[in-house]
Structure formats: C-alpha cells, structure tokens
C-alpha cells in the first residue's frame, strides 16, 4: 500500500511527489511515457516559475535544460486591433523534455519511486483507500494507495471518469522551422487578431529554430488559420522559411469565465492543468508547480482526513486562482475573443 500514487510526471506531478516524499510518505510517481518525454510547449519559464523552482527544488533551473537564447526577456503582445504591448520580464527558455526530466529526478532523489512507461487506466475509491489500475507494458494490475494525486495534464482521463465531465479543448498546432525573420529571438510574441487564430498565434525561437503556432477552438480549421498566420508573418516581419523541421498538434484546457478549478473528489485530488489551472497565452508551468506543492502540503497536514485535505487545498490554492483570474481579465481588455473573462 502506497501513501500516495501520483499520476503524471509533468511539473505538477513531480512537485507533488517531491513535496510528499521528502516528508517521508511512500510515493509512487507513475508516468505513462518514457522519460525524457516530449511535451508540446513553447518552454518559456516566467520569473514566477523560476522563483518557485528555487523555493521548492532548492536550486535554479539548470543550464542543461535550456535552449538558445537561454534568456527570455518577456512577451510582446499584439491585440485584436493591431496595437502592440511590450511586457518585459526576465525568464528562461527550456526544452520541456529536459526540464521535466530534471524535476522528476528531483522527486526520485527525495525518495519517490518514479516509474516510467506506466499508465493509470482507472481508479476506484473506498472509504479508506483507492485502488488504481496500472498498465506497464502488457501487464495490467492494481495498486492500493491512501490517495491519488491526478496530474495527467490536459487529458485528465481519471478525472473524466470520476466526474463525468467532458472538458472543452483548444487545439494547438506549431511548426519548427529553419529560416530567418526580423524579430528579436529573446522575446515570446503573441497575436490576438481574430483573422490569425481563434485564441492566439505565437512565435518564439528555440536553438535557432523558428517556432510558429496557432490555437483554435474548431480543430478542423487549424490549417486555414496557420496558412493565414504564415502569410501575415511573411508580410509584416520578413519571415522566410527554408525548411520545415517538425510539427506538433496538442490540446490546451479551455478556461471558462470565472476560471473554475476542480480540486478533487474524495481521495483523488487534482493539480496542474488537470485541475484547470492555465494562464493566458498557455502559460501553465508556474501554476502546475505551485498547485502540486500546495496539494502536497495540504495532504501532509491532514493526511487522515480526506475532507480536510480537500478543503485545505482549495483554501491554499485560492490566491493562485485569483492570480489566474487577474491575468485573464488583463487579456479580456485586449481581445473581444476573451471579453467574457472580465472580472
Ligand atoms: C503549444 C503549447 C505551448 C505552451 N507553452 C508554454 C510556455 O511557454 N510556458 C508555460 O509555462 N506553459 C506552456 N504551456 C502549458 C504547459 O505546457 C502546461 O500547462 C503544463 O505542462 C501543465 O503541467 P502539468 O504537470 O499539469 O501537465 P503535463 O505537463 O501535461 O504533464 C502531464 C504528464 O502526465 C502524463 N500522463 C497523462 N496521462 C497519464 C496516465 N493516465 N498515466 C500516467 N501518466 C499520464 C503525461 O505523459 C505527462 O507527462 C504550453 C502548452 C502548449 C500546448
């Protein structure tokens, strides 16, 4: 019997696993992919994320996880009327595969049993424990734990089964390219004009590769928006693509007005994107780390009382939810597409 089974070794899961393991809890961190695993992400760590990593992991984000330019100097945002705003702030540019592996290694060093290529398929709650069905290779078996921390990211299979909720998603599509452009590679750029995307379109640079992406509500129209975005970038910013190196399609949690958060059901608690945490322009690593840590602390403080865990976690995470609401409120003034996110 484990004290806690954490599902998913993204930033939320590794932080929760580390927080609990270093308090002496017996923790299994199950990750369905082989590590280091790919995660579609711009890999921009804002200052808040860097501070959280130092606070909870005891050292700065290491250079080995970063790509060039290693420094991100902020976001340059173009609103839906074409006005440009510059938000300067020092951050870092990482490959998520390396960064997430580093976080998982930290959880292992704190005493968590980290097992890759192990997927959680389902879970069943009793009053005193939870049974989780796990799949490792062809082997399907059950494990018991006092709690599950569900950090599966955007898809949240366990959460869907437990709550019966069918989440709404935003589809993201981005390509990595060899080429040139007349934009400063130290910044992350986002465009909110409705012609270019149904959410945002973005540009950033990773190890010399030009990354261009769009996000849309209606996944079938991805290509149409992407083609228009590329034409816009060619005309406005001198984009020249010599070779397309890679592409990926992913999902983002669609944040609803009021930024609702699902903290958990009984002995199954949610953190990170599974709980619904996600800031505008798809910034989610800071809230994944913070919610994972807050959940670990709440669990440790009230281990024998699941109701008290849920309530303490919801209270501790309220400032994080309020921060998220303020961020979305800011964006609501920049684009009619986010008008319903006004506080
Ligand atoms: C295109 C794009 C760009 C983004 N850019 C940024 C950015 O620049 N900066 C930023 O801060 N955020 C960015 N984000 C958001 C960020 O990636 C997420 O919010 C963040 O990764 C959420 O962390 P998490 O730990 O909740 O989930 P994840 O990082 O998604 O981790 C979930 C983990 O759970 C595993 N898993 C899933 N199901 C199971 C299962 N059943 N059993 C076992 N394991 C399972 C997955 O393999 C994965 O490793 C971006 C997102 C997208 C799509």
Can you walk through the features of this model?
The protein is of the alpha/beta class and 343 residues long. It has 2 domains: 2-66 and 95-167 and 256-341, FAD/NAD(P)-binding domain (3-Layer(bba) Sandwich), CATH 3.50.50.60; 169-253, D-Amino Acid Oxidase, subunit A, domain 2 (D-Amino Acid Oxidase, Chain A, domain 2, 2-Layer Sandwich), CATH 3.30.9. It is 30% helix and 34% strand. The protein has 8 helices and 16 strands. The strands form 2 sheets. Strands 1, 2, 6, 7, 8, 9, 15 and 16 form an 8-stranded mixed sheet that branches. Strands 3-5-4-11-12-13-10-14 form an 8-stranded mixed sheet. A hairpin with a 2-residue loop joins strand 8 and strand 9 (139-150). Bound molecules: flavin-adenine dinucleotide.
Class by SSE composition? alpha/beta
Number of strands: 16
Shape: globular
Head-to-tail CA distance between termini: 45 Å
Short synopsis of the structure:
The chain is α/β, with parallel strands linked by helices and 343 residues long. Helix content is 30%, strand content 34%. The chain contains 8 helices and 16 strands.
List keywords for this structure.
343 residues; alpha/beta; D-Amino Acid Oxidase, Chain A, domain 2; 2 domains; eight-stranded mixed sheet; 30% helix
Topology:
Blueprint: E1 2-7, H1 11-21, E2 27-30, E3 44-45, H2 47-57, E4 66-78, E5 84-94, H3 96-109, E6 113-115, E7 118-125, E8 130-136, E9 139-150, H4 157-163, E10 169-180, E11 187-191, E12 201-206, E13 209-216, H5 222-237, E14 240-253, E15 264-265, E16 268-270, H6 285-301, H7 306-316, H8 318-332
Parallel strand pairs: 1-2, 1-9, 2-6, 4-11, 9-16
Antiparallel strand pairs: 3-5, 4-5, 7-8, 8-9, 10-13, 10-14, 11-12, 12-13, 15-16
Helix pairs in contact: 1-3, 1-6, 2-6, 6-7
The protein binds flavin-adenine dinucleotide (FAD).
């Amino acid at each position: 019997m484990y004290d806690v089974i954490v599902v998913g070794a993204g930033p939320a899961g590794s932080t929760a696993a580390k927080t609990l393991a270093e308090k002496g809890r017996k923790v299994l961190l199950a990750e369905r992919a082989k590590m280091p695993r790919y995660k579609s992400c711009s890999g921009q760590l804002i200052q808040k994320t860097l501070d959280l990593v130092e606070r909870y992991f005891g050292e700065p984000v290491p250079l080995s996880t970063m790509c060039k330019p290693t420094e991100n100097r902020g976001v340059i945002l173009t609103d839906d009327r074409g006005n440009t705003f510059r938000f300067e702030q020092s951050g870092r540019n990482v490959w998520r595969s390396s960064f997430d592996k580093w976080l998982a290694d930290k959880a292992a060093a704190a005493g968590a049993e980290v097992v890759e290529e192990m997927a959680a398929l389902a879970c069943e709650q009793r009053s005193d424990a939870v049974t989780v069905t796990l799949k490792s290779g062809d082997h399907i078996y059950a494990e018991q734990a006092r709690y599950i921390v569900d950090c599966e990211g955007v898809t949240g299979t366990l959460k869907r089964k437990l709550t019966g909720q069918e989440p709404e998603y935003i589809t993201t599509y981005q390509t990595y390219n060899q080429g040139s452009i007349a934009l400063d590679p130290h910044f992350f750029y986002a465009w909110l004009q409705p012609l270019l995307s149904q959410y945002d379109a973005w540009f950033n640079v990773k190890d010399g590769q030009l990354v261009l992406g769009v996000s849309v509500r209606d996944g079938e129209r991805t290509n149409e928006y992407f083609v228009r975005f590329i034409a816009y970038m060619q005309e406005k910013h001198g984009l020249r693509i010599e070779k397309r190196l890679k592409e990926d399609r992913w999902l983002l949690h669609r944040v609803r007005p009021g930024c609702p958060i699902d903290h958990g059901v009984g002995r199954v608690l949610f953190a990170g994107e599974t709980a619904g945490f996600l800031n505008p322009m798809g910034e989610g690593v800071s809230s994944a780390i913070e919610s994972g840590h807050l959940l670990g602390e709440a669990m440790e403080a009230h281990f024998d009382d699941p109701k008290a865990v849920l309530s303490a976690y919801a209270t501790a995470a309220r400032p994080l939810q309020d921060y998220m609401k303020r961020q979305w409120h800011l964006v609501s003034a920049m684009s009619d597409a986010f008008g319903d996110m006004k506080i």
